[in-house]
Amino acid sequence: MQDFKGRVAVITGAASGIGRGLASHCAGLHMKLVLADINLENLEEFAAELSQGGTEVLAVPTDVTDEPAVEQLADQAYGQFGRVDLLFNNAGVLLSGHSWERSAADWRWVMDINFMGVLHGIRAFVPRMLKQDGDAHIVNTASLAALLAAPLMGPYTVSKQAVLGLSETLHYELQEMQARVGVSVVCPGQVASGIVNSGGHREYDASDEGAAATDALQEYLHSGVEAGMEPAHCAEIIFEAIRKRHFWIFTHPHFKDSWREQAERMLAEKNPVYDQLDFDLLDEEQ
Q1: Which of 43, 69, 150, 189 is the most buried (most CB within 10 A)?
Q2: Domain range for residue 171?
Q3: 0.85 cut: is pTM over it?
Q4: pLDDT tens, position by position, 139-185
């Protein structure tokens, strides 16, 4: 897919972070947009801003954890525009803390948004995309956490590794069908997306040690992740990969040395080792 003018993009989590960066990039390419987000106020404000700039925008308040709501999103997108050329399953949240100290409800909250939200998008849109003429493409937002696990990031890491597994499976399935629908999985490193603050409203009943560790991680995430790449730059990288029909999209390829070391340890049947320095190096490259 090379020419994006006039094409239709659906973006979940569109009112902030990477989703907002993608929407702005799409608008710059003169695309038609279907923006979905659970934050109605931010969604409507952003949609109005894009509309004033001349972009044709349909704003659909959507809770991606609700499968009927995502089906309704697809209904409205196809009802308005008759097709969807790009689907960005992007909505996501993050919680930190020891795996055993996060409640089952917290785990379900993260998994329902980060993983089930992607699955709901695939189930709602893929059957329709297969029936339409021309090329189409799906981009699922995972994370470097899908490839490199880290302490105190259990729900987030597990959800993003599930997104990666689902994306690769979908890629093979569509490939076997010789479908004109491509798949990419984006594994961002440090992007100033605001995701670090997404779980701030949830109560966390932790031990003193657990709370201290979580506070230290939050400080690191704010100083590293939230000071990272601008979403606009991330969107440029994603669209370049779509043009090339690349499955893998990496915003911070320096991580590959760490991943290679872990893969070699696995093949040698050695226990995994977490090295904070591997992630600190990513900050130095911003």
Answers
A1: 189
A2: 8-253
A3: yes
A4: 999 999 999 998 988 999 999 999 999 999 999 999 999 999 999 99
Does the residue 261 lie in any domain? no
Count up the domains in the chain and report the number.
1
**In this predicted structure, what is the pLDDT of residue 283?**
37
Q: Which residues are catalytic?
A: 156
- Residues of the chain short of pLDDT 70, as ranges, are 194-227, 276-286
Residue 232 inside a domain? The answer is yes
